[in-house]
Structure formats: C-alpha cells, structure tokens
Amino acid sequence: MQNQDVRNLMLSLASDSPFVEEIRKRHFPRKKILSPSERLVCPMRNPSFQFDFAEAYVRAEQRLPLQVVRASLFRLYSHLCYGEKIKYNDPAGCEAIALADPSNTTALTLRVPSPRIA
C-alpha cells in the first residue's frame, strides 16, 4: 500500500476500531482517544501494516470496515479467517503466507546470508 492509502484508511477509521485500539493500547496506553498524528505514527513505518491490520480484525472477530478497498487486504483477511478452507480457491496466497511463517525453517535459511570465508 502507498503511504497516502495508509493515511486515508487510518484517518477514516472509528476510534473503537480493533486496529486503532491495538495501537492505543500498545503505544499510548494512557490516552483514551488518539490524535490524527498518533494514529499515523506506527502504521506509516510498519512494513507489515496490512498483515497487522487484517490480523487485528480477525482477533476481534469483526469484518473489515467499509473503508477498506484494497484487494490485498481482503485476500489476507480471508486467509487469516478461513485458513485451510480457502486453500483451493487461492493456493498462491496460502503458499505466500506459509513462506512468511516463522516456523518455516527453509525460508529462514534462504533469508540468512552465509558467513564469508576469507
């Protein structure tokens, strides 16, 4: 997602949205309502924003808000909600999520650079 997309989405969410609540609890525990700049500080610098956003709604057992228009967010949300049930409809999506799983030691081995021998 582009920064402008993230900005528009974050500023359009209600104060009680699961993702805004997670930001508030994690980064601003003493505040009841976040200002616009506080809403943007974490998501704008978060490379896994889409995953964290979708996961917050899955954990809260809520549907994505109507402001979400990105197909990638809907696709990720569907995979997190339905897991293996969606495997036959979107096998590439399931494979991508499996590759990013920390328990996938093959993917981790491929990411870690080997030490240089001098």
Q: Could you provide a short overview of the structure?
A:
The protein is mostly helical. The protein has helices at residues 3-12, 18-27, 36-41, 49-59, 71-82, 91-100, 105-111.
Biggest beta-sheet profile: none
**Count of the separate structural domains:** 1
- What does the average pLDDT come to? 81
- Briefly note the structural class of the backbone: mainly alpha
Portion in helices: 55-70%
Description:
- The mean pLDDT is 81.
- The protein has one domain (3-111).
- The chain has helices at residues 3-12, 18-27, 36-41, 49-59, 71-82, 91-100, 105-111.
- With 118 residues, it is mainly α.
- It is built from 7 helices and no strands.
- Helix 4 (49-59) packs across helix 5.
Task: Produce the secondary structure layout.
Blueprint: H1 3-12, H2 18-27, H3 36-41, H4 49-59, H5 71-82, H6 91-100, H7 105-111
Helix pairs in contact: 4-5
Features:
single chain; 118 residues; mainly alpha; elongated
